[in-house]
Amino acid sequence: QLGEREEVCLQLRELLEEKNSRIQELETNISKLHQELIQSSTATDDHTQRLVSQVHSLQTSVKNLQEERDNLNNKLDLELEQNQTTYQTEKELREENSRLQDLLNTSLSLNENLQSSIELSQVE
């Protein structure tokens, strides 16, 4: 089960990298459009309006991607927390199993000693 969770975390990290890359790309485009707006002070109102519209559209895309990224980060945090819980549970189960194995070995040893004592007492 822990292996599956680690795979989910890996997939979430890959999605986060994609989102971050896309956000960077859009922010670069916004910056370029801002520069174009600044340089186009002689541009027509139509052209300026188109650039402003593109900037707003890109800003909205960035905002949406940032929200998706935040959601993925939250999901990753939950998965990592569950992984830690699963790991801790498996560790505790292994420790308990080891303790029970020790008790079983002790019990078997005592049983053998008792059996030997019974056999010896029957001989006497």
What does this structure look like?
The chain is mainly α. It has helices at 2-39, 45-123. α1 packs antiparallel against α2 (45-123). It is rod-shaped.
Count every beta strand, where a strand is a DSSP E run of 2 or more residues: 0
Structural class: mainly alpha
Describe the biggest sheet?
A: none
Strand content: under 5%
Q: Helicity, in percent?
A: over 70%
Number of helices: 2
Radius of gyration from the alpha-carbon trace, in angstroms: 33 Å
End-to-end Cα distance: 58 Å
Mean pLDDT: 85
SSE order: HH
Detail the poorly predicted runs. Answer: none
Give the overall silhouette. Answer: rod-shaped
Secondary-structure topology with pairs:
Elements: H1 2-39, H2 45-123
Helix pairs in contact: 1-2
What is this entry, summarized?
The chain is built from two helices and no strands.
Key terms:
0% strand; single chain; 124 residues; 94% helix; mainly alpha
